[in-house]
Design brief:
By secondary structure, this protein is mainly beta. The chain has strands spanning 2-3, 13-14, 25-27, 32-35, 82-84, 91-94, 112-117, 123-140, 151-157, 168-171, 176-193, 200-203, 205-211, 219-220, 226-228, 245-266, 273-278, 285-290, 296-322, 329-335.
Length: 336
């Protein structure tokens, strides 16, 4: 991959996957950049003396994550940190009816651009596919300094027909423009220009953020806010036994989740299970995931179970072990 843009000299970014090819990450759109089993990035890196540590296979994997090892995470660990809202196939349409999918495709280097100079009333409407909760919107125009909006408003709608008063108004120009407002839950949002400009409007990526974790995103075990009877590691827990639990506060479910997926490692035991409980470690059981052995506590597998009922709104979420002294170690979980 090579990227060039405005500037003298133009910036250039190259990928170390040569020849250019799909690295087959778990979910690149949402930043889950660990390799899948068939990824060409596995064992394709170079060893560097004094830098490269122990690796699996014939060489280090290209990228931040080693396939088969626990997935580490970075970022803010403080209460109240904003988290990015999962983009699971958003669609965008320009006010003239043209497709604007490049503005929400999760690829930083693609760009939607208007076909006329900026004018008040021009807009982009984004369908999030399902209700999402968010309180900040970021518009990224990449390196195109000519395409920044001179002013815009943000409106939200649950049905795409009724919009009401804008929740935010922004003026001024910058590479990334933010609109911050009281958290709202809606399926649709509309960004409308409020001022004219001499150049067409350009958008590389639209991102949304909210307080608290998104249930559909990856809830990393080492970032659990509540830990009971078990030690959190750099990228996973130690082995949970009966009564041990990890918990996440204020998890946002939006329109709802009906499937629990957990990445775990277990030696196996007869009646072992992980129970998903809401609002407290002793709260209502939303799902029970039977734990089958994965081949040992250093062999990681993803296991899923359907929830009997869809969970909506916002809840504290707890994963509680039951059935044995050594049920499973947990790397991460998702609720989608």
């Amino acid at each position: 991959m090579e990227i060039s843009g405005p500037g003298d000299p133009a910036p250039v970014v190259r990928s170390n996957l040569l020849p250019p090819t799909d690295p087959r990450y778990t979910d690149a759109r949402n930043g889950e950049l660990w390799p899948r089993a068939d990824s060409p990035a596995i064992d394709a890196g170079e060893r560097v003396d004094g830098v490269t540590g122990e690796v699996r296979g014939d060489g280090p994997d290209q990228g931040a994550y080693e396939y088969g090892e626990p997935v580490w995470s970075s970022g803010c660990r403080l209460a109240g940190c904003e988290t990015r809202v999962r983009n699971d196939g958003w669609k965008a349409t320009a006010s003239g009816g043209a497709d604007a999918s490049a503005a929400v495709d999760g690829v930083q280097t693609t760009q939607w651009k208007g076909d006329a100079p900026q004018a008040a009333g021009q807009s982009l409407t984004v369908d999030l596919g399902a209700a999402k909760t968010f309180g900040r919107l970021a518009i990224d125009a990449g390196l195109d300094a000519t395409g920044h909006p001179y002013g815009f408003s943000v409106s939200v709608s649950r049905d795409g027909d009724h919009w009401g008063t804008p929740v935010a108004r922004v003026s001024g120009r910058s590479f990334t423009q933010d609109a911050v407002f009281e958290q709202r839950t809606a399926r649709y949002l509309r960004i409308g220009l409020t001022r004219p400009g001499e150049n067409p409007w350009a958008v590389n990526e639209i991102r949304l953020y909210a307080d608290g974790p998104d249930a559909a995103a990856t809830l990393q075990a080492e970032r659990a806010e509540v830990v009971r009877g078990v030690e959190p590691g750099e990228a996973a827990t130690s082995v949970l036994g009966t009564g041990d639990a990890i918990g996440f506060r204020g998890v946002r479910f939006g329109a709802g989740a009906d499937t629990l997926t957990v990445r775990l490692a277990s030696g196996g035991c007869g009646d072992c299970a992980l129970r998903l409980r809401l609002d407290s470690p002793e709260g209502p059981v939303a799902a029970t995931l039977p734990v089958r052995g994965t081949g040992g506590t250093d062999e990681w597998r993803e296991r899923s179970v359907r929830l009997p009922r869809t969970v909506t709104g916002s809840h504290d979420v707890y994963l509680v072990a039951t059935g044995g002294h050594r049920v499973a170690a947990v790397d991460w979980l998702t609720l989608r």
